[in-house]
Specification:
By secondary structure, this protein is an alpha/beta fold. The protein is built from 9 helices and 11 strands. The strands form 3 sheets. Strands 3, 4, 5, 6, 9, 10 and 11 form a 7-stranded mixed sheet that branches. Strands 1-2 form a two-stranded antiparallel sheet. Strands 7-8 form a two-stranded parallel sheet. A hairpin with a 4-residue loop joins strand 1 and strand 2.
């Protein structure tokens, strides 16, 4: 099976036009047609039906299956190229969300320096959702990711390092600041300011709200934790953050939720399972994992 034939087919499935694909690759239309015929001969089935009355093409069921797998094939090729290009690097890319970084790095830095590994780490900042995508593309090697559920993917190796709770966050002058705990039903009149879709907090909050049959009024979403905390301090709205985001100097009050079921903010150490790695990837992964496990005992 020829990769160029698959590339033509992938674009035909997208564009639904032999002519457009031929123009895109600057080849003749028969070249594209023969590519599809070769694939059909290899697979022993019809992949495309021409609808001459409407001057369009239709994928058969087999064609739809090939379309799905072709997309995966080219994704893996791109990841492989990225990893091979970086194979000889002595520096690995470690993805780190800001909240997790602020909590973990002060304790982790001395350990990594002691192990002689810090000079081989290039930190990449971003929300957990963005870093997950970069990890799957092979653009970073390891990540510490936040998740409200287990990270279970056949392409990834993940180890749970930390479990925390999500909490409601209010200004010290807010009436709720005196409460020992709250339920979402206590917050029906409140306006919320939250971290945006780059972080897991937004989806976790929406899932939590569904469990409680609660429709929150979200008035603002930000990717900047400091801006968000400033808005909460000024009582523009209240927030929803993991307890590891707590800082005694931020002038905010973190209140536990008493709704059930509870959602955890889990911190996972994650790397690609099938990966062309530099020698330092496994060393750094194992060093971070061992550090956290030994500190829990």
């Amino acid at each position: 099976m020829n990769l160029k034939d698959l590339e033509y087919f992938k674009e035909i499935a997208l564009e639904k036009s032999f002519t457009k694909v031929a123009e895109m690759f600057k080849v003749s239309q028969p070249t594209v047609t023969y590519a599809v015929k070769r694939l059909e001969n290899d697979l022993g089935t019809k992949l495309i039906i021409r609808d001459n009355s409407h001057k369009s093409i239709i994928l058969t069921q087999a064609g739809k299956i090939l379309e799905i797998h072709t997309e995966k094939i080219f994704q893996e090729i791109n990841v492989t190229r990225t990893e091979i290009n970086r194979l000889k690097d002595n520096v690995i890319k470690l993805g780190l969300p800001p909240i997790i970084g602020n909590f973990c790095l002060p304790k982790l830095y001395p350990h990594l320096f002691k192990e002689g590994l810090m000079n081989h780490i290039n930190l990449v900042n971003g929300g957990s959702n963005d870093l997950y995508t970069l990890l799957m593309r092979g653009e970073i090697d390891i990540a510490l990711l936040g998740s409200s559920h287990l990270i279970s993917d056949e392409n990834l190796t993940s180890e749970l390092l930390i479990q925390n709770k999500f909490m409601i966050v209010v200004s010290a002058s807010h009436p709720l600041a005196k409460e020992k705990s709250v339920s979402l039903s206590d917050l029906k009149e409140e306006k919320f300011v939250l971290l945006n879709h780059h972080y897991i907090h937004l989806n976790a909050f929406r899932n939590f709200s569904k469990y409680a049959s609660f429709e929150p009024e979200i008035i603002y979403k930000s990717n900047d934790l400091n801006i968000l905390k400033g808005m909460i301090r000024e009582r523009v709205g209240i927030g929803f953050l993991t307890e590891i985001a707590m800082d005694k100097s931020d002038g905010l009050v973190y209140i536990p939720l008493n709704d059930e079921p509870q959602l955890n903010f889990n911190v996972f150490l994650v790397q690609r399972k099938v990966s062309l790695k530099s020698n330092y990837v496994n060393k750094i992964f194992n060093s971070i994992y061992t550090f956290y496990k030994s500190n829990q005992e």
